[in-house]
Amino acid sequence: MGAHSEQGGSSWPQPQDADMKRAAAQLIEKYYFQLTNGCGNPHCDNPNCASSGKVGPVTSNEAAGKALQLCAARARLCEVFGAKVRRASQPRALEAGVAASVPESGHSSATGGTATCSLVQDVSMAGASTASSAPPPLSPQVDAPNSVTGLTEETLAHTIAECRSADNYAKLRRLLWAVFSNEVALRHSFLQRSESVEKTSESLVSSKSTESVGAAQSKEEIRAQEGDLDKDLDCAEDTCEREGAIGGEAAASVGDTKDPCKKDNTHKSTSLDISEVRRAYDLLFKCPESEYSNTLTNAVVQLLSDSLGIQLRVYKDAFAAIPNNINIFVILLESPAINTTDFIEGVMPRLCRTIGQLPDRDQAHLTRHLATWEPSRLHRLLESLHQLITIRLLTTEFLQDFTINDEDGITSATQVMKILFYASILGGKLDTPLLKDLPPEDASQEPSAQEDPFNSSGKDWATRPPPKDSLGSELGIHVLDARTPMVPLMEFYDDFLSDQLEMDRDFAYYKAGSGDKFSFLNYPFILTPATKALGLYYDNRIRMYSERRISIYQQVIEGMAANPYLKLRVRRDHIIDDALVELEMVALDNPGDLKKQMVVEFEGEQGIDEGGVSKEFFQLIVEQIFNPDYAMFCFNNESRTFWFNPNCFENDAQFTLVGIVLGLAIYNNVILDVHFPPVMYKKLCSKPGSFHDLRDWNTTLYRSLVELLEYKGDDLEEVFMQTFRVGYQDVFGTSLTHDLKTDGDNILVSQGSKHEFVELYADFLLNKMVERQFRAFRRGFNMVTDDSPLVNLFRPEELELLICGSKHYDFMELMKSTEYDGGYSSQTPIIQAFWELVHDMTTEDKKRLLQFTTGSARVPVGGLARLKLIIARHGPDCDRLPTAHTCFNVLLLPEYSSKEKLKDRLYKAIKYSQGFGML
């Protein structure tokens, strides 16, 4: 029941609690707009109205606080000057207990005030057709007092023609301000109209255009014309379709699918005529820029700052229920001025802030519209967002308490960039949708405990669904579905932002997950792989320290032996046997120990593992694993890559241990010299291989299948003589066959079934034929990385870069980032001679030098500039060879007397470096 209270001599009404809250909120909003916008009366004398000139500059927060005080004091509330009021079928009491009604004349009472926010108006209009028992989303007591005419192409063309004839564009500026500063007018602009309405509008424009151009119109004529347009648009609002979709379909070829979002395209009512919007902009931008540009920009700024932004914060749920609300943002994004400096600096920050506050359903609808753009146009919008971020980074002074994560312009631009990211995927060529991926295996298909003892842990490490994203779920797609996006996904990286970002702070916000602080790791598409690798490094280190603390706790409290590290003691000549046996024992007894920091000790060799010994361990074990003698992997001479041997004699446990090794390398920040095809990393991210993955896996086979697909003749069966039975060879050269369909040898591939054939063939080669081996391999990989944000941050191509490093050997970057110690500098003659020799080396010798100095011949993520090599003086001229501390990337270089002597000693050191001279 509502409570009765006295305030200022007036009594509040007694509605239900929810109604009273809504009415109070509406009244407070009236005071807010009165303080910020004013009533529009140039002769206003209200000291609490902006139109009186007695209200000084106030911020949004100050205006909100003042509005609360005025509401509590029941201060005077102005009537909106010159507002047009829609006729109401019944008088309605105004909110907050003010006794007033809407008379038939269309004017409001002077005391009641009708400055109800446009949000309330539109919600009331939307609910007018519902049953009387169903109240609108906000206050059922509030009718729609304002009826603002939307803009049409005809109206704009007529206005521009008049302005050109009179050589005075004041009327155009008034029109632009009236529409683009009012969300109701903009929301109802450029709507699709029925045939009868279009004919009426065309006849109206035609009759007006027959008048003498340049003749001055009387006020009565102008009012009559506005009334006619009001009637036309009111009719259009009643007859336009309330269900529509803006979107396109991807090309239907092998691996392509129709728009998976089409099923949900009707969730948001829209009737916007995109073609009319673009034609209208073309008309406007043919006018002199000085006559409309500032007015248009200022109107949009006011719209986004004073109206939409507040409504989205206060009435977000109700705003989402308004029909055609997404039209506002579509119209603004269609502006050809979106790449201009004025738009980027003036409008874009507010536009991004407002779009970022939209619910996922509205953002998904906007994404579908952007997916219909030309790729070049989408790329230009992306460039504008990058430019906005750069401007804010350069012009904002960041402090200890105000970082990049707090800068609203940067964070909101990142949120809008996410919409572009999905639009690029949705509008490009899609791979097999993730929803159609391979189903999980039945329990009957699980390996037995004898075949795979790791299943005894009770956790299925082999199944790990890909991470979900709210916008992607709304669209029905996943990042992994992208095959050929409209804009290359690498274009979304912001290098400057990635370099300036404090990753330790951002990672803390990411792990907190409270939503109070913005974290760029939740938007990984904008960060370079090197920056994300740093975030992954922090995560891994925190887990290692946590395991170390648990071990110490168990020692002190429970009296258990301290075991803070994952220690592996191996013999160099039996590295595979020793490493896999020890890892198998750890995985069986306590899989959690795999998340401890790994320490390797070679039996019979002195040295403390600070990272360098582990690097050498991984290098040696990878060489042995891919040795043909083990026959666990097959080598493809054409692509120079390894793939699982489907007919090997090793059990699943061996592949699980190999997966553990790969996971440990990532976990311990070690780059491996492995050569898998890209489809391997795609499968590790929970996405099975498809036809287009054959291009990098077996180029010859891929080309032959493309030739089959491109053949258009009716005699395909006679030309290719291909059935649904395929042949292949095992590692020993034995010929085997497989039926892709039941009785496949008797089913010829035809024009109607060739797409099905290549899909089934690719699925067999990349998924089903190696299902047992890959499932075991992935199980081991996930035993190490199951709690890691790895698959949340990295796409398949980035995961490959993280594991294998870069293939770009730029030693100029290494020279610029190298530091010197012990008396050396970049100007020391021996150092200059050293770099001259390095630049003259072959690629293989450069790899050996990296192997010698860092313990790995691979380039880290981000390039050699991130390696931080240190060259230290190791005494005067002598006959000793250079040595290295690979744990710390330190090269100990004596100050040789000549360049020739340096070359001799250096080449000998890097040639015979394995197992010697590295600590």
Topology:
Layout: E1 6-7, E2 10-11, H1 17-36, H2 60-73, H3 118-126, H4 153-166, H5 170-180, H6 183-187, H7 195-209, H8 219-239, H9 274-284, H10 293-314, H11 316-320, H12 327-333, H13 341-356, H14 360-370, H15 375-395, H16 408-427, E3 429-430, H17 470-475, E4 482-484, H18 495-500, H19 503-512, H20 529-557, E5 565-570, H21 575-589, E6 597-602, H22 612-625, E7 633-636, E8 641-644, H23 652-667, H24 678-684, H25 694-697, H26 699-710, H27 716-720, E9 725-729, E10 735-739, H28 754-768, H29 771-785, H30 790-793, H31 796-804, H32 811-817, E11 819-821, H33 829-840, H34 843-854, E12 870-873, E13 883-885, E14 890-893, H35 899-911
Parallel strand pairs: 5-6, 11-12, 12-14
Antiparallel strand pairs: 1-2, 3-4, 7-8, 9-10, 13-14
Helix pairs in contact: 1-2, 4-5, 4-9, 5-10, 7-8, 10-13, 13-15, 13-16, 14-16, 15-16, 19-20, 23-29, 24-31, 34-35
Q: Count of helical segments?
A: 35
What percentage of the residues does DSSP assign to strands (E)?
Answer: 5-15%
Poorly predicted parts: 1-16, 82-147, 195-270, 435-446, 915-919
The side-by-side strand order for the widest beta sheet comes to: 11-12-14-13
The biggest beta sheet, please?
Answer: 4 strands, mixed
Q: Name the structural class.
A: mainly alpha
Distance between the termini: 79 Å
Estimate percent helicity: 40-55%
Report the radius of gyration as a whole number of Å: 35 Å
Number of strands: 14
Q: Which term fits the overall shape?
A: globular
Mean pLDDT: 76
Write out key terms for the chains shown:
919 residues; mainly alpha; 35 helices; globular; disordered N terminus
